[in-house]
UniProtKB/TrEMBL annotation:
Source taxonomy: Bacteria, Bacillati, Actinomycetota, Actinomycetes, Mycobacteriales
Annotated compartments: Cell envelope
Pfam families registered for this protein in UniProt: Flg_new (PF09479), LRR_5 (PF13306)
Gene3D superfamilies with a match to the protein in the record: Listeria-Bacteroides repeat domain, Ribonuclease Inhibitor
Principal location class: other
Gene Ontology CC, one term: cell envelope
Protein name: Uncharacterized protein
Length: 304
């Protein structure tokens, strides 16, 4: 009967084991340092549930889901307040408002991202996209059979599943119109909006009217969206009467707001000085101090 001798670790192996232990411990500490603890919370306000990282005050909030019985007209706020801290709403998550029979939605100016299928399977008719939106996900508005207009108030989104996925807004073969400001018109779709088509959708630019008032008060320009008739402002100027907006400084032709625009234009204010009425003169009377009525009549009837 023979007894087996115990295996004695080699010097190299005895050195390798503690080195591996040190590496594993160091890696664990590095992972903890690289991934700080996050305290994401779900907060429901007005029927909308938001995901908020309350460990980072002032960080961005995401609209994550919607209560089915909260109504068909939705207004997403620009921010929510949790524990006295305000969090801007910048993202609408994937599937957040899908299949809720929504008829209208108002998006906040703080919004930057609309997730995949965020508003799919509803009955929206028009959507106004805020200027800060840079990303619209796949199938974001698919299957909204009454959707006819999507209005972009800012630049074309940098990420948009249009060419690759023709059903992002609805479907490229239906009568859906994309409206955009003419200042964002470009020669190629990857540079901005194009017309008459943009990534498969009918696209129409909206033009602006700027106002030249001369020595009158400044007036902000207006954007005239397709099919709309703008209400032109009526400025006031001390000592002058406003006579209307003209096509050029020396023109007698008034700008017709009902006429469709084909380019950006400048309207020129007409001014007419206010005429100051002249007071009638008062006849001078001759003093008859010390005289009698007969003296007065004698002067009037017989001046010479």
């Amino acid at each position: 009967m023979t007894c087996s001798q115990p295996t004695v670790p080699s010097p190299a192996r005895r050195l390798l084991v503690p080195m591996l232990a040190v590496v594993l411990v160091s890696t664990a500490f590095m992972a903890l340092a690289a991934a700080p603890a996050r305290a994401a919370r779900l907060i429901t306000v007005g029927g909308i549930t938001y995901s908020v990282d309350t460990s980072a005050p002032g960080s961005e909030a995401t609209a994550a889901s919607y209560e089915h019985d909260a109504g068909t007209d939705v207004t997403i706020p620009a921010s929510i307040t949790v524990g006295g801290t305000e969090y801007p709403v910048t993202t609408i998550g994937d599937l957040a408002f899908m299949n809720h029979q929504l008829t209208s939605v108002t998006l906040p100016s703080t919004l930057t991202t609309i997730g995949d299928s965020a508003f799919a399977h509803n009955v929206l008719t028009t959507v106004v996209v805020p200027p800060a939106v840079t990303t619209i996900g796949r199938l974001a508005f698919v299957d909204n059979p009454k959707l006819t207009t999507i209005r972009f108030t800012g630049p074309a989104p940098l990420t948009f599943a249009g060419d690759d996925q023709p059903y992002t807004l609805w479907a490229a073969n239906i009568q859906l119109t994309v409206e955009f400001r003419s200042q964002y018109l470009a020669a190629e779709s990857w540079l901005g909006f194009t017309t008459p088509k943009w990534v498969g959708y009918r696209a129409i630019p909206a033009y602006s009217i700027s106002f030249a008032t001369g020595d009158g008060p400044a007036v902000d320009p207006v954007t005239v969206w397709p099919g709309e008739v703008p209400e032109l402002p009526t400025p006031a100027r001390q000592g002058y009467t406003f006579t209307g907006w003209y096509t050029s400084p020396d023109s007698d032709t008034l700008v017709d707001p009902r006429s469709p625009l084909t380019a950006d234009i400048t309207a020129h204010a007409g001014w007419r000085p206010v005429e100051t009425p002249v007071a009638p003169s008062t006849p001078a009377w001759t003093s008859l101090a010390g005289g009698s009525l007969n003296d007065f009549l004698r002067l009037v009837l017989q001046p010479n």
